[in-house]
Amino acid sequence: MIKVSYKISVDRDLCIACGVARTVCPQVFVLGDDNGKNRLLEEHSEETSGSSSIGSITEDLYDCVGKAADSCPVQAITVQRK
After folding, report:
1. Could you list the residue range(s) of the whole structural domain that residue 48 is in?
2. Number of independent structural domains in the chain
3. Is residue 55 packed enough to be buried (19+ CB in 10 Å), middle (13-18) or exposed (0-12)?
4. Which end of the chain lies in a sparser environment, N or C, as judged by fewer CB atoms within 10 Å?
């Protein structure tokens, strides 16, 4: 069985650090200790900078991440099938 994966992007410039994504999906998101803004946890991260956090997840986390993206008040999170 092939696992579908998804690319996750967080626009950290747009993020207002409200904590909604971390609250809705703590398995994937955390507020960074570098600037207090949302980023992906290390196990899902491929690249993190002050302005973005990019990584991937598998199908089992899609609903959780989708809820976090939908809940983000500034729409700083995007999810795309790889």
Report:
1. 5-81
2. 1
3. buried
4. N
